[in-house]
Amino acid sequence: MKTTPEHNERIAKMKFASVYPHYITKIEKKGRTKEELYQVIEWLTGFDDKKIQELIDEEVTFETFFNKAKLNPNAHLIKGVICGYRIEEIENQLTKQTRYLDKLIDELARGKKMEKILRTE
């Protein structure tokens, strides 16, 4: 499935703070911890838990969130389908980065081992 300009715009304008509680609910429901969620977000973006909380408090959009991030050099190893989109085929960088985060959180919730989630090669 190909993303549309409207879809990409909607993601760019969405506030990270509005989605973050859903991430917590999703992973905790499956027995994972907030610390593991922080570890996954930090691996992808370089943000520690203090910085994540700052960005939530500032109510930044996903566009600002990823503009401030220092994306992990191995992020391109995140592949597969999330929300009906094949990550490797997403052309819009911001949408791709957001789907990277969605995919990592999905893997965490599904009980995948942390070593596999935090791709090294």
TrEMBL record:
Recorded superkingdom: Bacteria
Lineage, opening ranks: Bacteria, Pseudomonadati, Bacteroidota, Flavobacteriia, Flavobacteriales
InterPro entries in UniProt: SP1917_dom_sf, UCP033199
Designated name of the protein: DUF2200 domain-containing protein
